Alginate lyase domain-containing protein
Amino acid sequence: MADYIPQTVTLDGRELASIKARIKTGADVDDALRNALDLLTTEADGWLTEGPWSVTQKTKAGPSGNLHDYVSQAPYYWPDPARADEGGLPYIQRDGQKNPEVLTYTDRIYLEKVFRSVYVLALAAYYTDDTRYADHAALVLRTWFVAPATAMRPSLNHAQLIPGINTGRAIGIIDFSQSYASVLDAAVLLRAATSWTDEDEVGFKVWNTTFLSWLVDGDFGKTEHAEHNNHGGFAAMLVASIAAYVGDTEQVAKEVAFAVEEHVPKTITADGQQPAELARTRSWHYSTFNLLALTRLAMVAERAAELHDSRAEQTQEGKRAERGQKLWPSLFAAIEYVLPAATGGEDKWPHPDLQFEQFAAADFVRAAAAAGHEPSQKAVPLLQMPPDGDMWPLRPAPEQLDPVRAPRQTPGAAKPGVAV
């Protein structure tokens, strides 16, 4: 992978190559980069002894009866104590309170491990050229998505089901949309590894093409996409990311146009508030969560347009993609609304939140700063970084930093990312 400039989906491949060159030569390697690399390789080492995982490892099939179907349970729904004689059915909602019963569905647990391990291992392989990391990432990715005996079917018909109410729902798409774009970047990084074969690449692209059709054309995908909250933002980002990976730049453009013309105007007020997120028990978390999705979408738009430009032999260095330019300005009011709390803490957030985590804003503020947003640029030195270490110097793109579930991430463990 020494001279490989990856055409990544969200991350800027040229930036990754520049970072790698700094590491290789030892030039301009500051403490932040050195610490991030140590954090990355330590976690990658932990993943080498775990997995692979498969949806077929669950002890019983879900509603379809097919072990290859992904199944998860809605995290905030609990048995109704008034219906104890009926098994608590139908379940009732307790927003922000996660029912531990959901952990009995191992697909969600394993999915988080797959997503996190593949991303960390692929990044570690790219930066260190250690084939052990690439080999294991390829095995994990192949097992979950490609190998016929173990692969997940490319749909989410039974995600976040609610006992006594349904066998799956559109909202369950967020099980994937929170982190899957990072897996696509990982798959691109693995293209230079001999352990990720041409057959693997073809199989993974076929899987994603089918999944993309399910998302765009199916009722669940359409319903989730139309939500005027973080679900709609993440759905647009998920579709755009997959479309960019399989080379469908037209679909990427559609998602960005949707965000600029429909989603942002309906979810973000002129002064930058996000009413649907502010109504939640974790108003800060969900406000930052939606901005994570939308800033990632802006980055996907940039990468897709840059790839289009390069194919058209328009090679102006550093050119900001037109589609990304349209989306970024529409987000600045919302980013500016959270900046006081992002830099000054909970006392600067005028809304209730059950578990305020100031560092949740760190990544998307830095992404906005990189996009030229001056208030974000001024805020960067005042940001609080994640307590378990800062990976931004190696993967400069917004990631979810404050998962709902405690405890925080430890090396080699699945990064919990349950937020709906």
